[in-house]
Amino acid sequence: MYYFCGMESNRQKKIASVLQGDLVDVLQSAASSGRLGVIISVTKVNVTVDLSIAKVYLSVFPTDKREELIVGIKSNASKIKHELAQRTRHQLRRMPELQFFVDDSLEYIDQIERSLKGLDDPLNNPDLLDKRKKK
């Protein structure tokens, strides 16, 4: 069982910071070499107490390519881990297993801002509401 505790140790924070910085470089260079025309941000990295797993949260723009890109990143996780291990070999003894997740918090914030400005008003545009099926 792996534990992500609420209070991270300084070691966990340091490893997460190192991984986040290097992951940005690795993922953005892979995206630009693939000519995908996307921007990938590593919004957060959480490392387990035993330092064996790193949960990586990614934000992708434009969002319509997000799912396809996350699938590609997950399928290449071992290559990404190897590249990170090369970059951090003087800082980390062991590279944690990488788990990638979508961070859609920026999209969520944008939706809230649009609603507050009255841009997405369901009273004026009922199509914005989810179509609910009656059971």
What does this structure look like?
The protein is 42% helix and 18% strand. It has 135 residues and is α+β, with helices and mostly antiparallel strands. The protein has a three-stranded mixed beta sheet. Helix 1 packs across helix 3. It is elongated.
Compile the SSE list and pairings:
Layout (H helix, E strand, L loop, with lengths): L9 H24 L5 E9 L5 E9 L4 H10 L1 H11 L9 E6 L2 H12 L19
Parallel strand pairs: 2-3
Antiparallel strand pairs: 1-2
Helix pairs in contact: 1-3
What share of residues are in beta strands? 15-25%
CATH homologous superfamily placement: K homology (KH) domain
- Integer tally of domains: 1
Q: How do the helices and strands follow one another from N- to C-terminus?
A: HEEHHEH
CATH architecture: 2-Layer Sandwich
**What is the third-level CATH name, the topology?**
GMP Synthetase, Chain A, domain 3
Outline = elongated
Average residue-wise pLDDT: 82
Question: How many strand segments?
Answer: 3
N-to-C terminal Cα separation, in Å? Answer: 40 Å
Q: What is the alpha-carbon Rg in Å?
A: 18 Å
Regions with pLDDT < 50 over 5+ consecutive residues? none
Q: Percentage of helical residues?
A: 40-55%
| Largest beta-sheet details | 3 strands, mixed
How many DSSP helices?
4
Class of secondary structure makeup? alpha+beta
Output the strand order for the largest sheet. Answer: 1-2-3
Features:
135 residues; alpha+beta; GMP Synthetase, Chain A, domain 3; 4 helices
